[in-house]
Amino acid sequence: MQGEAEPDQPFRSGFVGIIGRPNVGKSTLLNNLMHRKVAIISEKPQTTRNRIRCVLTREDAQVVFIDTPGFHKPRNALGERLNRAVRETLSEVDVIVFMLDGTQTIGKGDLFIAGELEELDTPVVAVLNKIDRLNGDQVEAQLSVAEKLGEFREVIPLSAKTGENVHALIERIVELLPEGPKYYPDDMVTDQPASFIVAEIIREKVLQLTREEVPHSVAVVVEEMGKREEGDLVDIDAAIYVERDSQKGIIIGRGGRMLKEIGTRSRQEIEPLLGEKVFLRLQVKVEKDWSRRPQLVRRMGY
Q1: 70-81: per-residue pLDDT in tens?
Q2: pLDDT number for residue 230
Q3: Where residue 38 falls among pLDDT bands split at 50, 70, 90?
Q4: Which CATH number is associated with domain 12-176?
């Protein structure tokens, strides 16, 4: 059976960083690897802001995946903090997964990341994602270009969305991990607190529902979260931060309809996560130009 240890097979464990340009599918891949939602997904770039650590435990190995923000040219304090998080991850991991979008021209952004990886001794597996949207000839052509980007242990074509060939990536990663102990209990999926995942779910719904109307400068902070003494109900108070009054109006919507919809969709995902009913209170607050001010970026948890 796949993932079972042979009698004399050593147990392998280690940390794996997932890196790539914004929007190449890193969070989708992480969710597929874990067979559940642990990272938020949006069409907007730079959706992932914190390094999300997820744990995949098998009979023969424990793989600790770290999703990273998309590497990009920073335009503000938030962007600089995101790039710093990526570089910190690269210095800590045992294996790096470098993701490429097979539907896009492999260009300057990918070359920039490949150049950063050349400076490291860490083994790198390149991944050509979104092959579900390509024909055979297109896959071969993109693989040929990807192989010239650097010294990779392997270039694996896959679809993070459908799961095609994801198993091959997992097996290659395990082969590259050092022998080692279990770092986390068998039943642990992520080391992020529930409040962090709740905030990320709410932020995802804001991004999905407002689409192009609200820029990326949205943050969500869970201010209070606790179970009532009587009854199976969890109270959650969360603040949605934006940078301008006009953005606040968009998120609230006419008659509060948009904010209500954000709350409804968020609660539908939060309740299965917590296993209990949730009473969710959302507020929208304006913190002018917070993404350009390092002190406020830290206060928002980034």
Answers
A1: 565 556 666 676
A2: 80
A3: low
A4: 3.40.50.300
User: What is the DSSP secondary-structure string of 246-300?
Assistant: HHHHHHH-GGGHHHHHHHHHHHHHHHHHHTSEEEEEEEEEE-TTGGG-HHHHHHT
Model pTM greater than 0.70?
no
Domains of the chain, by residue range, sit at 12-176, 194-299
Q: Give me the pLDDT at residue 301, please.
A: 63
Q: Residues 32-41, buried b or exposed e (16+ Cβ, 10 A)?
A: bbbeebbbbb
Nearest to 154 by CA among 137, 170, 130, 138: 170
Residue 175 belongs to what H/E stretch?
A: helix 166-176
Q: In 3-state terms, what secondary structure has residue 164? A: coil
* Among 204, 241, 196, 242, CA closest to 220: 241
Q: What percent of the chain has pLDDT over 90?
A: 46
Q: Which of 125, 130, 66 is nearest to 93 (CA)?
A: 66
**pLDDT by residue (tens digit) across 64-110?**
998 766 565 556 666 676 667 777 778 789 999 999 999 999 888 89
Neighbouring residues of 166: CB distance < 8 A, sequence distance ≥ 6: 29, 32, 33, 158, 159, 160
| Secondary element (H or E) of residue 245 | helix 245-252
Please state, in angstroms and rounded to a whole number, the distance separating the CA atoms of residues 274 and 278.
9
Paired tokens of 129? 């994602």
Q: Would you identify the CATH topology of the domain 194-299?
A: GMP Synthetase; Chain A, domain 3 (3.30.300)
